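Worked example

This section walks through a single chain of length 129. The input is the sequence exactly as stored; nothing has been trimmed or padded.
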Amino acid sequence: MKIMSAGRLVSTDEIREKLMNIEEYMPQLPNVVVEFANYLADHLNPKLVPAGFALSYAYGIVSLYRGKHGNGQPIHHKLAKMPRGEYIKIKNYFDEIVDVVAEPEFASEAKKEFQTLQEDIDRGLGLYL
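Given that input, the structure is written out below as tokens.
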């Protein structure tokens, strides 16, 4: 599948493949971040744009922390309901991961979008009262 991003076609399959094999590109990643990259690859929308990638990453973090999908259904995955610090660790690797798995223009747009989501992610992780 090919989609348009910043005037260039981006292969969703390539992003998924790189996420599934992230440890080959980033061998020093903590295990929890590798597991999250694999989880994200399985849950990405087939039609991926930079904002969608950022939203999927953010939504994945918050949903796993809560242990529930947006529809209230429980998430049965080893990444669900871990200590908050693990999700903060995952959040902090966004820029590095998107730089590895996506073309530069796509990565740049996704990073800008992810920046706008920081407060929402932190609120979802219970960091604001």
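What to look for: The CA atoms of residues 6 and 63 lie 29 Å apart.
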